[in-house]
């Protein structure tokens, strides 16, 4: 056993030594004066300093949010290594090349991944009342269960101060009539009681980002137009117009302290979120200059396209979510108990049903309403036992249920979701998950530590049902299924000296499929998407190797290398009629293997007490493999490049803070997310881009600050599938007492 331990130590030192040689750092260098850093808990569920925690972790504080004039959670996160935010309207997030379905997002310990499809709408998380954001990169299912494949984003909201009252009021206005209005008040009412209330509203008129194009067919027409043509041969004929959005959030938090260590906190939060398109536009006009929305249009010799008003109109989206959280905490005994209930009361969209005879885009008549409310209940307990000899043990249990119901209605007025004529379809299903976990941190000595943990999940898909009216409708019930899965993790840490530590880990993850993939019938409007009650969870294996080094009292560097292999990937698949290319139905199925690997580097330097810099870089690679499936769109491929993963992500900047002035100069580069042979610089492309952003702030008084920001200073034009916003400006004022 002793010999095996020496071999392990030698292997770790050899691997990490090769990393250090890349950056010119020697392990025997000794630094005696450095900052131990911020305390974090997300990585191990025990308190560790960020400099010493054996994982790739970043922290964003409320002060960072204020100093950098950050207006949304996505904007805050995109400063960090390995995270990419797409630049389209209200863009989505990926971490280590994986989307939010593979990222567990928590707010005050409660999961934010949507019940319906497992994604996270970060726009629905208010930024103004955030105390801190901890980001753990790397598989964490041994502690957190499903979704924690790429990592965990753990957001903590503000609580009451130790005494008195704190007030923050924030108002900003920017390009495209974009507003943010927020206020939060947190008060220590007495030694026992505390109260906090918060309100935030963000809105924008949006910009023209979503265009429409059509492939030409043979023919002639009386109206002609000189339209932009894309590389795939299609012609852009107009678009949906500006995507307007509004996100409103309000809530309160009441706390009671039984004594110095025991507390009970109840919080309530309501989110109202809406988005829609307005001012559709067309590039086609008749001889009198009037806009043309329908009919055939000549675009070339013997080439026409056929316009339809419906294609210019978008959707009206709405979400209303209530979240209730009750948390009991005993810090003296390291015990936590939490119960939460999340209810998406309204989550859906309306769309127009425009008759073929209608020629304009002012249609306010019939439409369709797809509503998919959801419910989540979670109960969890957690306990830590410290200093049991050389052991620190953390254990817990949780029970979690989710319910999805999708209802579809015919509307008499598509902009009015209350104008229901009748319900014509419904599908529903439930899942439950019972889990227990344990983690043991064993310290061999002052240098070596071993973390060993595992989580057992008993995941059950409940019975699903579906019905639809009409002679071609369905009436179906399918049985559920139970899965038993263990997610282990082993992590070895070596602390070389007071300023350098290394870690190596292996873990497995278990990610159940979103309910929509299991239970939903898409109907004819979705091209006949049918449910798959036999859909299995995805399972992933993650290896990671990392190093953290405080080079001097002004310099620090973190490096991590990772490899993730996921089996039973869930893929959207077209099934054809035998021997044809005609789609019979579509379905989500378990198909193939996905591999993600990469390197992340983060370097920070402090020039003076007032001027600091940061540089982070991520190299990422995604590859997919799968067999050929007859009569489907899965033609078979081996280690095919997944171009949705940006290969290079680079971020660098300077931050200045002295007396009355603050300043930020930020630069970001993201490589193209498409093959080198794909067309670039046009609608539909996933262009690479380099952006420069800046902000400057002035403290009029210690409590009152004015800030001005410019994003995309050089007004770079590029496409992230949709068109992007170009240069934008924001002016904000902040009062903090």
Explain what you see.
The structure is a single chain. With 737 residues, the chain is mostly beta strands. Helix content is 6%, strand content 57%.
Poorly predicted runs are 1-36
Distance between the ends: 59 Å
Tell me the number of strands.
45
**Number of helices, where a helix is a run of at least 4 consecutive DSSP H or I residues:** 5
The level of helicity is under 10%
Mean pLDDT: 89
Backbone CA Rg: 27 Å
Estimated structural class: mainly beta
The main pleated sheet reads as: 28 strands, antiparallel
Shape by Cα distribution = globular
Report strand %. Answer: over 45%
Keywords:
single chain, 737 residues, mainly beta, 28-stranded antiparallel β-sheet, 5-stranded mixed β-sheet, 5 helices, 45 strands, 6% helix
Please outline the helices and strands.
Layout: H1 2-23, E1 39-40, E2 48-49, E3 56-61, H2 62-67, H3 73-77, E4 83-85, E5 93-95, E6 98-99, E7 103-107, E8 110-111, E9 130-137, H4 141-144, E10 151-157, E11 165-174, E12 178-188, E13 193-204, E14 208-214, E15 217-218, E16 235-257, E17 262-278, E18 281-282, E19 295-300, E20 303-307, E21 316-330, E22 335-352, E23 367-371, E24 374-388, E25 391-411, E26 420-443, E27 448-461, E28 464-468, E29 475-478, E30 481-497, E31 500-511, H5 515-519, E32 538-552, E33 555-567, E34 570-576, E35 583-590, E36 593-606, E37 611-626, E38 637-641, E39 648-658, E40 661-670, E41 689-701, E42 704-711, E43 719-720, E44 722-723, E45 728-736
Parallel strand pairs: 7-10
Antiparallel strand pairs: 1-2, 3-9, 4-5, 5-6, 7-8, 9-10, 11-12, 11-45, 12-13, 13-16, 14-16, 15-20, 16-17, 16-18, 17-21, 19-20, 21-22, 22-23, 22-24, 23-25, 24-25, 25-26, 26-27, 26-28, 27-30, 28-29, 30-31, 31-32, 32-33, 33-36, 34-35, 36-37, 37-38, 37-39, 39-40, 40-41, 41-42, 42-45, 43-44
């Amino acid at each position: 056993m002793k010999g095996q331990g020496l071999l392990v130590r030698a292997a770790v030192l050899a691997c990490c030594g090769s990393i250090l040689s890349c950056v010119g750092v020697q392990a025997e260098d000794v630094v005696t004066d450095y900052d131990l850093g911020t305390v974090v808990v997300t990585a191990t569920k025990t308190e560790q300093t960020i400099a010493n925690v054996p994982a790739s972790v970043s922290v964003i504080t409320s002060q960072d949010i204020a100093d950098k004039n950050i207006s949304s959670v996505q904007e805050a996160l995109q400063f960090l290594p390995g995270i990419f935010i797409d630049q389209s309207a209200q863009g989505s997030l990926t971490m280590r090349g994986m989307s939010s379905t593979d990222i567990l997002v928590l707010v005050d310990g409660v999961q934010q991944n949507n019940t319906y499809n497992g994604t996270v709408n970060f726009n629905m998380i208010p930024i103004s009342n955030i105390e801190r954001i901890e980001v753990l990169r790397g598989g964490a299912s041994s502690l957190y269960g499903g979704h924690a494949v790429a990592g965990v984003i753990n957001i903590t909201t503000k609580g009451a101060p130790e005494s008195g009252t704190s007030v923050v009021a924030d108002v900003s206005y920017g390009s495209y009539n974009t507003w943010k209005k927020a206020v939060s008040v947190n008060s220590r009412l007495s030694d026992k009681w505390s109260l906090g209330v918060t309100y935030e509203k963000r809105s924008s008129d949006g910009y023209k980002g979503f265009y429409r194009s059509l492939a030409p067919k043979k023919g002639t027409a009386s109206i002609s137009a000189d339209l932009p043509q894309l590389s795939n041969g299609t012609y852009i004929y107009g678009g949906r117009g500006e995507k307007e959005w509004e996100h409103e959030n309000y809530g309160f938090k009441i706390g009671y302290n039984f004594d110095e260590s025991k507390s009970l906190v109840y919080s309530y939060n309501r989110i109202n979120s809406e988005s829609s398109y307005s001012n559709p536009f067309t590039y086609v006009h008749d001889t009198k200059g009037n806009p043309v929305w329908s009919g055939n249009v000549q675009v070339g010799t013997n080439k026409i396209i056929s316009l339809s008003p419906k294609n210019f109109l978008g959707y009206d989206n709405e979400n209303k979510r209530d979240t209730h959280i009750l948390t009991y905490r005993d810090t003296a005994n390291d015990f936590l108990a939490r119960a939460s209930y999340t209810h998406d009361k309204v989550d859906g969209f309306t769309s127009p049903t425009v008759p073929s005879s209608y020629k304009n885009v002012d249609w306010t008549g019939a439409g369709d309403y797809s509503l998919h409310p959801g419910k989540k209940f979670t109960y969890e307990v957690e306990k830590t036992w410290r200093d049991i000899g050389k052991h620190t043990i953390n254990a817990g249990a949780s029970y979690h249920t989710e319910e999805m119901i999708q209802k579809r209605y015919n509307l008499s007025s598509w902009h009015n979701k209350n104008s229901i004529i009748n319900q014509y379809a419904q599908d529903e299903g439930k899942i439950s998950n019972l889990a227990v976990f344990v983690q043991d941190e064993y310290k061999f000595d002052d240098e070596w530590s071993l973390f060993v943990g595992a989580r057992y999940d008993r995941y059950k898909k409940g019975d699903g049902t579906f019905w639809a009216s009409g002679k071609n409708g369905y009436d179906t019930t399918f049985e559920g299924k139970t899965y038993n899965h263990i997610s282990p993790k082993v992590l070895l840490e070596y602390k070389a000296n007071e300023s350098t530590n290394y870690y190596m880990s292996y873990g497995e993850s278990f990610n159940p499929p979103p309910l929509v993939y299991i239970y939903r019938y898409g109907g004819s409007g979705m091209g006949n998407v049918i449910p798959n009650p036999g859909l299995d969870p995805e399972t992933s294996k993650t290896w990671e190797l990392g190093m953290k080094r405080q080079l001097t009292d002004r310099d620090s560097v973190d490096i991590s290398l990772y490899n993730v292999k996921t089996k039973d990937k869930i893929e959207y698949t077209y099934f054809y009629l035998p021997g044809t290319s005609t789609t019979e139905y579509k379905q989500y199925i378990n198909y193939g293997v996905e591999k993600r690997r990469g390197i992340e580097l983060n370097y920070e330097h402090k020039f003076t007490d007032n001027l600091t810099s940061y540089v982070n870089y991520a190299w990422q690679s995604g590859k997919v493999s799968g067999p050929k499936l007859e009569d489907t769109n899965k033609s078979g491929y081996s280690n095919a490049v997944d171009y949705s993963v940006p290969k290079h992500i680079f971020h660098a900047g300077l931050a200045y803070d002295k007396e009355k002035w603050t300043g930020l100069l930020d630069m970001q580069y993201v490589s193209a997310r498409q093959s080198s042979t794909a067309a670039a610089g046009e609608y539909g492309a996933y262009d690479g881009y380099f952006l420069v952003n800046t902000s400057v702030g002035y403290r009029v008084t210690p409590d009152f600050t004015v800030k001005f920001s410019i994003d995309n200073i050089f007004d770079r034009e590029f496409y992230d599938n949709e068109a992007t916003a170009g240069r934008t400006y924001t002016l904000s004022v902040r009062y903090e007492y």
